[in-house]
Amino acid sequence: MERIVLKIAYMVANGIPEKDATMAMIVAGRFTVGSVLEEQADLHPHDAIDHDQTSTKIDHEAAFEAGLELIIRGLATSTHCGDS
Fold this sequence. Notes:
Blueprint: H1 2-13, H2 18-42, H3 60-77
């Protein structure tokens, strides 16, 4: 827990509102867990109900990186909130 508090403090010190920094940590954690679960599910395609869904291969690493980039870009815009 202390590591998360330090990460939030770092973001706040760099201009990100505390609420946004806290939510970013929650979102990043949930996104990571969800990505891992999806990747693991694809390791066992015979368990899938709809076998047509397993025919398309997903580059999980590329999808994770792209999603994380979107989260980071969204967080970067929060430093400009209230700068009117």
